[in-house]
Amino acid sequence: MRAVGIAVFLGLLAGAWSQVASPVLRPDCDSPEVEEAALAAQDYMNSQLTHGYKYALNQIDEVKTIPRPDGGENYVVEMDLLETKCHVLDPMPVANCTVRPRQETKVEADCDVVLSKVGGVLSVVAYKCKSEPGMCPQKSKITV
């Protein structure tokens, strides 16, 4: 089952990269548009959690944008998230949550996310996160 999920994710990435022979752009990781996309991905992934603690954006490692034929664009973002002290059922916004310190077995997640931006609206198409073995009680998740 995991292999099927990975194959679907890679297929989405390949499809995003091959659209109409569009050029792949590499904007600055700290540009406002890229940060907006990363925060949208963070919020989406936190909304999908059913147990454990919320994750906060730590850093954006790499980003690619691919123009779409409809005038929108796709973002392929590699980012790191850190576990917070806020439980997923806590209504507090993740921006107000404290990141769990290392001595409390902090979980770090490396995530690859594909987002679509059409008409100024960002939406997550797929994501895959992994963390160090034995550190995270949740399995990697691929959503399509």
UniProtKB/TrEMBL annotation:
Sequence ranges assigned to domain Cystatin fetuin-A-type in this UniProt record: 24-132
Subcellular locations according to the entry: Secreted
Lineage: Eukaryota, Metazoa, Chordata, Craniata, Vertebrata
Name used for this protein in its record: Cystatin fetuin-A-type domain-containing protein
Annotated signal peptide: 1-18
GO molecular function: cysteine-type endopeptidase inhibitor activity
Keyword Glycoprotein appears in the UniProt entry: yes
Keywords for the protein's UniProt record, in alphabetical order: Disulfide bond, Glycoprotein, Repeat, Secreted, Signal
Record Pfam families: Cystatin (PF00031)
CC per GO annotation: blood microparticle; extracellular matrix
InterPro entries, per database record: Cystatin_dom (IPR000010), Cystatin_Fetuin_A (IPR025760), Cystatin_sf (IPR046350), Kininogen_Fetuin_HRG (IPR050735), Prot_inh_fetuin_CS (IPR001363)
SMART domains from the UniProt entry: CY
